C-alpha cells in the first residue's frame, strides 16, 4: 500500500509542511480536502499501530519518513536520508509541542514563586534532536517566518513566541481558520509588542494613575475598604487600550461587568467619574437620591469616551458582592442594545467582563454564560474576558484547594475560546494581547479570554492581613517594586523619559486629586448619542395608572386569522391543527378563550403596536405544558430552520420583533441575562418562564440581588416578567410550589408586582398592562398548570373586548349579601376547589373573593369588596400551600387593614410543613378535603 501512496511525484520531503497543513485540515474536517488526499490520509490511518499512538498526527509521521526518502538529490545513502527524515519529523513535532505546551514554560508570574516543572515535550531530545543538530537547517513547516532555518533559530523563535511574557492556548480550537489566525497573530510578531513612543508614554500615564489613586485613597481614608487594584495596575492600561482600539474598530457601545477588585480605579481612571464624587462616597455622602443605595465599590457608571474612531459609550454595570453573577446581566444588556441598533453581528456593541481568578472557574455562573454565548437567542457576537489573576482567590493560594484544573481559565475551553496568558508586569505585552484578543473577537464573533497574571498587594480588603494565610507569598510581594517602577525603569533605559519627568506625572495626578478633579479630560460631556434610552416617562408612575387593555372584536379576529395561518404545504401535527382551529372559534365567540389563546392574543396585539416581545425558558416555544404553540413544526421536515414557522413574526409590516427561545438548562445565567436585557429594553415585553416554578430556586441570587432590589439600590428600572407555574395538584414536593412566600417577603416600596390570576382573561390583561402602562417594575406571575385546560377558568370573548386587569374579583354567585356570615378570601386555583365545595354543600352564607394581585396589595379594592357584606363577622384566608408557606403570614396584616371593627380573621389551609407539598396523591386529596371543609363549615355562635 505504501508503494502505491509513494508513487506520486509530488510526495517528497520538501513538501512536508504542505502535507502537514493538509493533514491538520483532514483531522478537523475530512470534507474540506480533496477526495484524493482524503483517501490518502484514510489509508494512513489504517496503517498497523496507527490507532495506538498518543498523538493524533502519529500516523502521518511515519509517512513523512517514507516521503522524505523520495530522492531530490543524489549522494546520500538510504540510511542518511531516513535519519534526516526522522530529524525533520522531530522538528515538526517540537514545533507542535511548543504550540500546545509552550505556555507551561512561559514567564507569567510576576512573583516568580514557582519553579517551572519539566515538560519533556519541549525538550528537543524527546524528539530525537541533539546539540549536533542545532546548526542544521530544517524545514519550518507551518511555523510563521522563514521556510527553512537552523534548529537553534527555530527553538529561539518558539521560545520567544510561546515562552516569554505571553502564553497562548489555542490548539484546543477545532476550527482551522480560527486556530491558524491565532497562530499567525502571535508567531508573525513572535509575541513581541512594538509600540510607538507616544503609546508607551500613554501606557505609563495609565499605570501611574492607577497606582497613585490607590495610594492616595490608602492614606486619605485609612482602614476603609476599597478592594485595591495594587499589583494589577496594568489592567487600567489594558482597559484604556481596549476602549480606544474598540472605537477604532467601529464599536459604539461597550458594556463592562466586574466585581469589586479594582472597581474604584476603573470608575475614575477609565470611565472618568469625578474623584470628588468618589471622595464624597468615602465620606458617607452620595449624589444619587436612592431609597437604600449601595456601597461605593458596587456602583455603576457610564460615560462617552473619545477614540480615533469616534465616541464610544462605556457603561459599567452595577453589581452586588455575588461576584460573577453580573456577567450574564452584562451580556443580556449587550444583546438588548444590539437589538435596538439592529446590530446582528455584534460589531457595534461589545460586552467586556472582568473576572477574579478563583471566581472565574469557581462560580457556576460562568459555565452557564459560556454555554449561552453561541446560542441563537443569547449570542452577542463574542465577549472579551479579562481575568485579574491575583493567584490567590480569596485566601486560598494553593491551587489544589481552589480548583481541579491547571489554569483558572480552563473553563473557557468548553467553547473553544482562545486563552491568552500574560505577565502583568509587562504592560506593553498586556496591551498587545488586548489588541489581538479584540481583533479575534471582531473577526470571528466569538468569546476570547485574557489571563492577566498579577498579584494582590494588600489583603482581600484593606482590613485583612494576608500574612496570616500566605506568609511566603506576601514576603515576595513586599519585595516587588511595583509594575509602575519596572516600567519607568524600562522607559528611562530606552531614553523615552527621564526620571524627573516620570515623577512629574505622579505629582500632577496627586495635585488634581487634591482638587477632586482629573488630570486631563478623558470623557465627552456634551455628546448626544444615538440609541440612548429615555427613562423619564417611567419615573413617578403608579401601579394603578388607569390603562385600557381591552381589544376590539375586529382586532381580535384579524390578529387570530394571522397567527393561526400556516404556509402552504406546511404539515401540522394533528394536535396543533386542532389547537389553531379552536383558537379561530374562540376569536369568533363560539368557545370560551383558554390561557394559551389569551397569551398569544396579548403578544400579537403588542407586537402590532410596535412593542418587542421576548420569551425564554426551557420549553417556551411549545410551552412546558403544551399550551402556547408559538412555534409550529412541519411534521415532514427535520431541520429546525426549515421546518419551523413562527406566526407571531407575521402580524404586520412594521411590527415589533418577536423571539421565543428554548433556553439552555440553567436558570441562574438565563434569568440574569433576561434581567440585563429587560433593564436595557423598557419598550419590550421580556418574559422568563420557569419550566416549573420551583426551578427559580436555582436563580435566587438574581431574584434577591437584582430583580427585587435593583431599583432601590441602583435606580435601575426593569420590566422583566417572570411566569412561574404554581399549584397543588398532588404531583409531589418539587413541582407544586413556586415559593410564593419568598417573593412576598421581598416586597417593599412597590419594588415588584405579584399576581396570581385565576381566569384566562386576567392573564391577557396583565401582560398587556405590563407594556401599555408607563410603569416599569418586575412582574411575577404565579400561573396555575391545572387551569390551562380547566373550562371554568376560561373566559368569554367579552372579557377581552372590555375592561382591564382586576386586582380583586368579586364573588360571581348571586348571594344575598345580608345573609353572608363569612367572607373567604383566596388567590389562584384553590378558588375553584372552594366553589366546587360550596356547590356540593349548597352553602349560601359564605362568599368567596379572589385577590388576583398580591403586591402591591389592592387595599382599597378589597376593602370596597368586603364592605358589601354588611353582616359578615368573619374574614377567612384560605390557601392551598402549607400554613408556614404561601401568602398567609405576609398578607395577614394587609387583610386586617381592610376589615371592619369587630370582624375576626381566621385561616384555613394545609398544616405547616417542612416540605412544600406531600408526595402521595391520597394524602394530597385528604388535606384538600380537610381545609375545604374547614373553610365552608360555618356554625353561628
Could you characterize what this model shows?
The chain is an alpha/beta fold. It has four domains: 2-187, no CATH class; 197-286 and 293-514, Thiamin diphosphate (ThDP)-binding fold, Pyr/PP domains (Rossmann fold, 3-Layer(aba) Sandwich), CATH 3.40.50; 594-624 and 653-801, Rossmann fold (3-Layer(aba) Sandwich), CATH 3.40.50; 810-936, Multifunctional 2-oxoglutarate metabolism enzyme, C-terminal domain (Rossmann fold). The chain has an eight-stranded mixed sheet with strand order 3-9-10-8-7-4-6-5. A seven-stranded mixed sheet has the order 14-11-15-16-18-17-22, with helices on both faces. Strand 20 (822-826), helix 30 and strand 21 form a beta-alpha-beta unit. Helix 9 (234-248) packs parallel to helix 16. Residues 1-14 and 48-55 have low confidence and may be disordered.
Amino acid at each position: 500500500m505504501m508503494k502505491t501512496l509513494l508513487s506520486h511525484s509530488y510526495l517528497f520531503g520538501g513538501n512536508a509542511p504542505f502535507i502537514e497543513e493538509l493533514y491538520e485540515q483532514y483531522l478537523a474536517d475530512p470534507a474540506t480536502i480533496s477526495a484524493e488526499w482524503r483517501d490518502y490520509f484514510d489509508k494512513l490511518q489504517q496503517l498497523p499501530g496507527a490507532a495506538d499512538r498518543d498523538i493524533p498526527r502519529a500516523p502521518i509521521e511515519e509517512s513523512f519518513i517514507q516521503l522524505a526518502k523520495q530522492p531530490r538529490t543524489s549522494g546520500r545513502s538510504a540510511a542518511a536520508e531516513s535519519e534526516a527524515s526522522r530529524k525533520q519529523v522531530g522538528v515538526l513535532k517540537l514545533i507542535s509541542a511548543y504550540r500546545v505546551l509552550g505556555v507551561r514554560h512561559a514567564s507569567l508570574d510576576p512573583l516568580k514563586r514557582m519553579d517551572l516543572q519539566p515538560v519533556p515535550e519541549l525538550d528537543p531530545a524527546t524528539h530525537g534532536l541533539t546539540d549536533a543538530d542545532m546548526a542544521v537547517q530544517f524545514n519550518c513547516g507551518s511555523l510563521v517566518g522563514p521556510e527553512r532555518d537552523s534548529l537553534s533559530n527555530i527553538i529561539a523563535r518558539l521560545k520567544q513566541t510561546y515562552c516569554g511574557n505571553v502564553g497562548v492556548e489555542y490548539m484546543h480550537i477545532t476550527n482551522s481558520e480560527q486556530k491558524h489566525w491565532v497562530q499567525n497573530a502571535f508567531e508573525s510578531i513572535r509575541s513581541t509588542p512594538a509600540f510607538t513612543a507616544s503609546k508607551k508614554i500613554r501606557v505609563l500615564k495609565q499605570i501611574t494613575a492607577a497606582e497613585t489613586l490607590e495610594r492616595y485613597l490608602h492614606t486619605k481614608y485609612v482602614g476603609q475598604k476599597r478592594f485595591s487594584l495594587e499589583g494589577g495596575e496594568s489592567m487600567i492600561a489594558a482597559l484604556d487600550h481596549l476602549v480606544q482600539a474598540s472605537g477604532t474598530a467601529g464599536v459604539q457601545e461597550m458594556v463592562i461587568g466586574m466585581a469589586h477588585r479594582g472597581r474604584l480605579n476603573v470608575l475614575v481612571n477609565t470611565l472618568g467619574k469625578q474623584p470628588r464624587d468618589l471622595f464624597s462616597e468615602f465620606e458617607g455622602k452620595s449624589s444619587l437620591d436612592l431609597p437604600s443605595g449601595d456601597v461605593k465599590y458596587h456602583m455603576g457608571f457610564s460615560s462617552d469616551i473619545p477614540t480615533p474612531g469616534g465616541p464610544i459609550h462605556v457603561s459599567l454595570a452595577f453589581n452586588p458582592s455575588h461576584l460573577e453573577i453580573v456577567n450574564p446581566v452584562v451580556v443580556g444588556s449587550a444583546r438588548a442594545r444590539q437589538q435596538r441598533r439592529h446590530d446582528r453581528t455584534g460589531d457595534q456593541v461589545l460586552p467586556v467582563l472582568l473576572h477574579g481568578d478563583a471566581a472565574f472557574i469557581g462560580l457556576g455562573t460562568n459555565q452557564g454564560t459560556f454555554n449561552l454565548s453561541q446560542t441563537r437567542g443569547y449570542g452577542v457576537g463574542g465577549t472579551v474576558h479579562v481575568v485579574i489573576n491575583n493567584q490567590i482567590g480569596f485566601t486560598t493560594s494553593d491551587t489544589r484547594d481552589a480548583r481541579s484544573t491547571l489554569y483558572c481559565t480552563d473553563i473557557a475551553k468548553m467553547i473553544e475560546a482562545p486563552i491568552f496568558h500574560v505577565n502583568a508586569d509587562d504592560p506593553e505585552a498586556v496591551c498587545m494581547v488586548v489588541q489581538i484578543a479584540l481583533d479575534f473577537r471582531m473577526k470571528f464573533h466569538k468569546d476570547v479570554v485574557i489571563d492577566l497574571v498579577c498579584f494582590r498587594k494588600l489583603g482581600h480588603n484593606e482590613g485583612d492581613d494576608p500574612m496570616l494565610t500566605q506568609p511566603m507569598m506576601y514576603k515576595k510581594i513586599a519585595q516587588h517594586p511595583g509594575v509602575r517602577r519596572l516600567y519607568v525603569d524600562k522607559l528611562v533605559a530606552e531614553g523615552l523619559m527621564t526620571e524627573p519627568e516620570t515623577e512629574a506625572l505622579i505629582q500632577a495626578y496627586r495635585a488634581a486629586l487634591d482638587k477632586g478633579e482629573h488630570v486631563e479630560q478623558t470623557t465627552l460631556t456634551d455628546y448626544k448619542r444615538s440609541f440612548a434610552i429615555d427613562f423619564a416617562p417611567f419615573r413617578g408612575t403608579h401601579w394603578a395608572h388607569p390603562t385600557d387593555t381591552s381589544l376590539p372584536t375586529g382586532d381580535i379576529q384579524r390578529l387570530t386569522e394571522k397567527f393561526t395561518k400556516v404556509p402552504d404545504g406546511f404539515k401540522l401535527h394533528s394536535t396543533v391543527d386542532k389547537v389553531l382551529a379552536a383558537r379561530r372559534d374562540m376569536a369568533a365567540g363560539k368557545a370560551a378563550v383558554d390561557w394559551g389563546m389569551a397569551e398569544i392574543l396579548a403578544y400579537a396585539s403588542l407586537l402590532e403596536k410596535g412593542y418587542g416581545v421576548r420569551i425564554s425558558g426551557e420549553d417556551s416555544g411549545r410551552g412546558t405544558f403544551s399550551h402556547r404553540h408559538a412555534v409550529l413544526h412541519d411534521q415532514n421536515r427535520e431541520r429546525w430552520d426549515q421546518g419551523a414557522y413562527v406566526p407571531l413574526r407575521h402580524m404586520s409590516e412594521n411590527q415589533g420583533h418577536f423571539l421565543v427561545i428554548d433556553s439552555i438548562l440553567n436558570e441562574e445565567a438565563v434569568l440574569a441575562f433576561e434581567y440585563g436585557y429587560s433593564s436595557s429594553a423598557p419598550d419590550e415585553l421580556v418574559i422568563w418562564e420557569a419550566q416549573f416554578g420551583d426551578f427559580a430556586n436555582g436563580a435566587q441570587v438574581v431574584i434577591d440581588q437584582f430583580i427585587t432590589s435593583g431599583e432601590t439600590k441602583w435606580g435601575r428600572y426593569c420590566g422583566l416578567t417572570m411566569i412561574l407555574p404554581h399549584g397543588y395538584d398532588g404531583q409531589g414536593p418539587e413541582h407544586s410550589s413556586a415559593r410564593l412566600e419568598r417573593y412576598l417577603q421581598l416586597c417593599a416600596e412597590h419594588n415588584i408586582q405579584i399576581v396570581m390570576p385565576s381566569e384566562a382573561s386576567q392573564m391577557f390583561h396583565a401582560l398587556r398592562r405590563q407594556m401599555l402602562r408607563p410603569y416599569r417594575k418586575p412582574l411575577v406571575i404565579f400561573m396555575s398548570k391545572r387551569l390551562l385546560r380547566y373550562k371554568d377558568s376560561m373566559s368569554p370573548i367579552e372579557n377581552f373586548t372590555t375592561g382591564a386587569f382586576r386586582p380583586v374579583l368579586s364573588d360571581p354567585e348571586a348571594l344575598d349579601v345580608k345573609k353572608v356570615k363569612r367572607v373567604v378570601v383566596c388567590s389562584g386555583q384553590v378558588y375553584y376547589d372552594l366553589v366546587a365545595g360550596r356547590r356540593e354543600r349548597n352553602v349560601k352564607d359564605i362568599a368567596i373573593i379572589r385577590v388576583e394581585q398580591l403586591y402591591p396589595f389592592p387595599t382599597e379594592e378589597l376593602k370596597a369588596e368586603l364592605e358589601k357584606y354588611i353582616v359578615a363577622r368573619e374574614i377567612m384566608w384560605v390557601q392551598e400551600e402549607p400554613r408556614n408557606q404561601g401568602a398567609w403570614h405576609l398578607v395577614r396584616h394587609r387583610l386586617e387593614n381592610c376589615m371592619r371593627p369587630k370582624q375576626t380573621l381566621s385561616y384555613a389551609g394545609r398544616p405547616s410543613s417542612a416540605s412544600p407539598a406531600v408526595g402521595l396523591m391520597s394524602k394530597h386529596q385528604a388535606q384538600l378535603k380537610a381545609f375545604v371543609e374547614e373553610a365552608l363549615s360555618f356554625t353561628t355562635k
